Amino acid sequence: MAEDGATTGAAQLAGVFGGEANLNAMHADAKRMLADAKAGKWAVNEETGSHLRRAVTQMQDRMTDLAQRIQRLQQAPKFGNDDYAKRAAAHFHAAMDSDEQSLVRVFLAAKDMLDSLLQAIEIAISKYDASDEAATQALNTFKDWESR
Description:
- The chain is mainly alpha-helical.
- Helix content is 76%, strand content 0%.
- It is elongated, with a radius of gyration of 23 Å.
- The termini are far apart.
């Protein structure tokens, strides 16, 4: 919370994902899903995968719309050249991009989580397709053997 009781931008952004704790958990889960998909422990069919992919890409599109504004927050604002203006600009910059709870870092973590999740979905679809093809080939081999 900001000093006047208003919610900070980082908290609002994290709130979109259910709060900072949920965002952190989602980030860890996305990384775990990616690792599991790469290891072949998780697969999803094309139809289900397309729904998951669409949901993630819609959120990524929203994040892309915000990215240019967020990028501006990674630079100290130009308040002026006197000492006070320089201190105020440094303070503002630090508030926006200084630690894991600042708006820029929360945004980047959310973006990274969505990227990992999309990659996991793509791999899971390919693993499902590969396992489906392998199962079909095995059944065809069995049918060929049976018809002899």
